[in-house]
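Renewal narrative, Specific Aim 1. Our central claim is that a sequence can be written position by position from structural information alone. The example that follows is taken directly from our test logs and has not been curated for this report. It begins with the structure tokens describing the chain, in the order in which they were read.
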């Protein structure tokens, strides 16, 4: 095959192995996330935490989460760690937003995202390696659905994919590379697209 005229990292992240956290491990993740949330202002009391599938990249695992707070905000963030016999070098990041799915009935997929690194491409061009997690806002989600991350511009390329775990997914993919940006699509088991959402609003 000829050289790729637009090389970018595709499917760079490890696929989920553990599914959704549970038991003692979930409790530890919860404590780490709540410690990060406690450093924020005006968060209020954090409600039940929704966890998403873990993804591994660059020697670390990332476990994203969301939760509603008593002040009407949505908490979002992740717990990251280096895997081994025992997880170590644990880091948690948290933030809040007023933008919720209830306030945006036009959304097809409820998304959160955080940049977790970068990839240097041709010349000085860099892609932002971005953790994306979310839930499709579809009344009857088909079984066997898969989420894909697509980097679009002159040409659209699928750069990551993840099966849905209890209606939730996590992607880790390059974004904002030479003007190309990420969108997320949901596909049913027959490879039919049932929802699509960009990481950017129309003005972005």
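The sequence written for that structure reads:
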């Amino acid at each position: 095959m000829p050289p790729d005229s637009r090389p970018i990292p595709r499917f760079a992240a490890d696929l989920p192995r553990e599914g959704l956290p549970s038991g003692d491990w979930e409790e530890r993740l919860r404590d780490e996330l709540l410690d990060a949330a406690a450093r924020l202002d005006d968060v209020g009391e954090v409600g039940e935490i929704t966890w998403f599938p873990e993804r591994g990249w660059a020697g670390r695992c990332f476990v994203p989460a969301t939760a509603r707070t008593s002040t009407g905000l949505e908490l979002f963030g992740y717990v990251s760690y280096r895997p081994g016999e025992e997880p170590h070098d644990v880091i948690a990041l948290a933030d809040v937003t007023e933008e919720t799915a209830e306030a945006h009935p036009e959304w097809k997929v409820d998304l959160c995202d955080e940049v977790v690194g970068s990839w240097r491409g041709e010349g000085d061009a860099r892609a932002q390696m971005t953790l994306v997690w979310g839930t499709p806002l579809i009344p009857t989600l088909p079984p066997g659905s898969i989420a894909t991350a697509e980097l679009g511009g002159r040409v659209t390329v699928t750069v990551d994919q993840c099966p849905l775990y209890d209606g939730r997914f996590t992607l880790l993919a390059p974004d904002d590379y030479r003007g190309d940006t990420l969108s997320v699509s949901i596909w049913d088991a027959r490879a039919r697209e049932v929802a699509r959402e960009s990481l950017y609003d129309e003005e972005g």
